[in-house]
Amino acid sequence: MIKADYIWFDGELVRWEDAKVHLLTHTLHYGLGVFEGIRCYNTKKGPAIFRHHEHIERFFKSAHIVYMKMPFSREEIRKATFETIKANNLKECYIRPIAFYAEGAMGLYPLNNKVHVAIICWEWGAYLGDEGLKKGIRCKISSFNRHHINVSMTKAKVCGNYVNSQLAKIEAVEDGYDEALMLNVDGTVAEGSGENIFIVRKGIIKTPPVAGILEGITRDSVITIAKDLGLEVKEDLITRDEIYIADEMFLCGTAAEITPVREVDRRVIGEGRPGPITRKLQEVFFKVVRGEDPRYEHWLDYVE
Ligand code: PPE
Questions:
Q1: Which atom of ligand 1 is nearest to the CA of 94?
Q2: b/e map of 245-281 (b: 16 or more CB within 10 Å)?
Q3: What is the pLDDT of residues 3-37, one digit of tens each?
């Protein structure tokens, strides 16, 4: 990864090398921490954070779901993020706020341990590769199911939830694919290891309903943009075989942005290259995040 100079840690900027924690950090052992993934893009008016308020809100809602008390306010986190971007002189970056339990008591009751909060910013290019963004990626339906809604809290971006994602991702990569697609325990399509899923069939865009998956902010942006383009969007259950016969498919997320999918389980999707609707959505999305579409100006939080 491309390192930056400073990390915001519990209210102050510390040097990247000095941002360290104790080996008994509770979250390192048991996984109960919450995090966000946000992107800042360069615009004509300077760096702007895409849908910053929605990401901060989800960060706090994640904490709320898992009983964690956030020791900073939303506005403090927002200002701290600006501070970190400026201290590192970044124009475009990925932003990773994380809240986690410190050392103290061990065992499975963490609420008496201090909550640490850090904000880390660094330059992160195309998550699934530049080539993937242009030509599409190859996916595999994972042998691992996505979380049951009463096993893990899927609306919360909890550190420990990502063990399941990593099992799927490792399996897919070791088998020669770029990314894993995960099914719910009932067999319907859920999400990628770190992205939401969309297909296009007969001109209609389809994505699974939010039950059981992370309520992606990029997913919401894509739905809004698509509807504004006059396209029909359906939030409905998708079966595995419906993916195989889709005309187009793409994944979306903060890190993955809009990444086309050209093959799933060795079946070519559509023409085997990004389809017209996927390309149109990508084109508008990249204009929106870089402040080139006034209709979505309210989605940008300019770094002050
Ligand atoms: N589902 C999952 C499981 C997920 O992790 C993400 C984001 C999404 C959907 C899309 O959500 P949103 O970013 O709000 O559109 N995954 C983050 C972590 C990636 C990582 O490898 O770390 C991200 O994209 O930042």
A1: 25
A2: ebbbbbbbbbbbbbbbbbbbeeeebbeeebbebbbeb
A3: 999 999 999 999 999 999 999 999 999 999 999 99
Q: Are 147 and 161 in contact (CB under 8 A)?
A: yes
Domains of the chain: 6-122 (3.30.470.10), 130-289 (3.20.10.10)
* Ligand 1 nearest-atom number relative to CA 220: 15
Question: Strands, E, within 169-281: which ranges?
Answer: 179-183, 189-192, 196-201, 204-207, 233-235, 248-253, 257-264, 267-268
Query: Ligand 1 center to residue 77 CA distance, Å?
Result: 19
Q: What is the pLDDT of residue 148?
A: 95
The CA 105 to ligand 1 mean position distance, Å, reads 31
Q: Burial of 165 by CB count in 10 Å (0-12 exposed, 13-18 middle, 19+ buried)?
A: buried
Determine if ligand 1 sits within 6 Å of the CB of residue 212: no
How many CB atoms sit inside 10 A of residue 3's CB? 11
Q: Looking at the annotation, which residues are catalytic?
A: 157
Whether the CB of 248 sits within 6 Å of ligand 1: no
Structure-token match 């910053």, residue found:
52
23: helix, strand or coil = coil
Residue type at position 156? A
Report the predicted TM-score, pTM, of the whole model to 2 decimal places. Answer: 0.98
Ligand 1 pocket, 196 CB below 6 A? yes
Whether ligand 1 lies within 6 angstroms of the CB of 26 is answered as no
Ligand 1 within 6 A of 168 CB? no
| Each residue's pLDDT tens digit, 231-248 | 999 999 999 999 999 999
Of all protein residues, the one whose alpha carbon is nearest to atom 25 of ligand 1 is: 37
Res. 100 pLDDT band, cuts 50 70 90:
very high
